[in-house]
Amino acid sequence: MTETARLGLRANLPQFALLVAVNALVGGMLGQERTVLPLLADQTFGVQAYTAILTYIVAFGATKAASNFFAGTLSDRFGRKPVLIAGWLVGLPTPALLIWAPSWGWIVAANVLLGINQGLTWSTTVIMKIDLVGRQRRGLAMGFNESAGYVAVALTAFFTGYLAERYGLRPAPFLLGLSYAALGLGLSALFVRETRGHARLEGGPAHGDEMRTWQIFLTTSFKNPSLSAVSQAGMVNNLNDGLAWGLFPILFAAGGLSLPEIGLLTAALPAVWGAGQMLTGAVSDRIGRKHLITGGMIVQGLALGAVASVDDFIGWLIAVALIGAGTAMVYPTLLAAVGDVAHPSWRARSVGVYRLWRDGGFAVGALLAGVLADLYGVRAAVWVIAGITVASGVVVAVRMRETLVDR
Question: What is the pTM of this model?
Answer without folding.
Answer: 0.81
